[in-house]
Known about the structure:
With 294 residues, this protein is of the alpha/beta class. It has two domains: 3-130, 3-Layer(aba) Sandwich (Rossmann fold), CATH 3.40.50; 136-278, Elongation Factor Tu (Ef-tu), domain 3 (Beta Barrel), CATH 2.40.30.30. Helix content is 30%, strand content 26%. It is built from nine helices and 13 strands.
Amino acid sequence: xxxxxxxxxxxxxxxxxxxxxxxxxxxxxxxxxxxxxxxxxxxxxxxxxxxxxxxxxxxxxxxxxxxxxxxxxxxxxxxxxxxxxxxxxxxxxxxxxxxxxxxxxxxxxxxxxxxxxxxxxxxxxxxxxxxxxxxxxxxxxxxxxxxxxxxxxxxxxxxxxxxxxxxxxxxxxxxxxxxxxxxxxxxxxxxxxxxxxxxxxxxxxxxxxxxxxxxxxxxxxxxxxxxxxxxxxxxxxxxxxxxxxxxxxxxxxxxxxxxxxxxxxxxxxxxxxxxxxxxxxxxxxxxxxxxxxx
Length: 294
């Protein structure tokens, strides 16, 4: 079956990817559109499951290839064996800076050179620019690492995202009067700047506005680092996993407090600031469908 194919890591499925995929649908000329992508590798914006769900809104098929199968293929073998031989591609859509094949040696010019041999129609789509620069996954990962989740959200078209499984904690926050759900975050996801964020939390049976903390807990140096969610309103029933965390605004950096009392007072101020930041904030789209992390 002939297909139009778009190839890429698609980390984040951000506005630039959405722009490319929307153009690919138009350029496909009515034949099925397939996205050919790969599992997360290195610090990423999404888990594989979340990426697949977002991509399914733009394509007829999402095909995930293991890196091990393709990373040593020459550009010529990738086009001939994978795109044409395995997928039946007759149309290929890519950005002008697309790279593929062993050592990222393949370029758009390589695709255009090989196109007559394999009967391919190759289309280049100019990247989407925001504030003068192309929207890219690397740009978004850098913003999140700096704590600029609002800037990241602008480029993503939705809030920056984390997910984790509830895990037993030291119950320090409960002792302070602000109980939290401790999370073991998916290891492949890029970590935001340590500190406190206004966020939405979602789990299979509910959701709620929250504070999200990630850091070394410098007020309690004998305890390990943590990532935890404090819900601004008590949840109905148990918060089970996975817990999705949608980061809306950075509130303050991680810091050491003189004692538990001053920390509790600051959390009270964080709550008020978080409530203000989330006022009028719409409930974000869930990115997971399955009841467990995989």
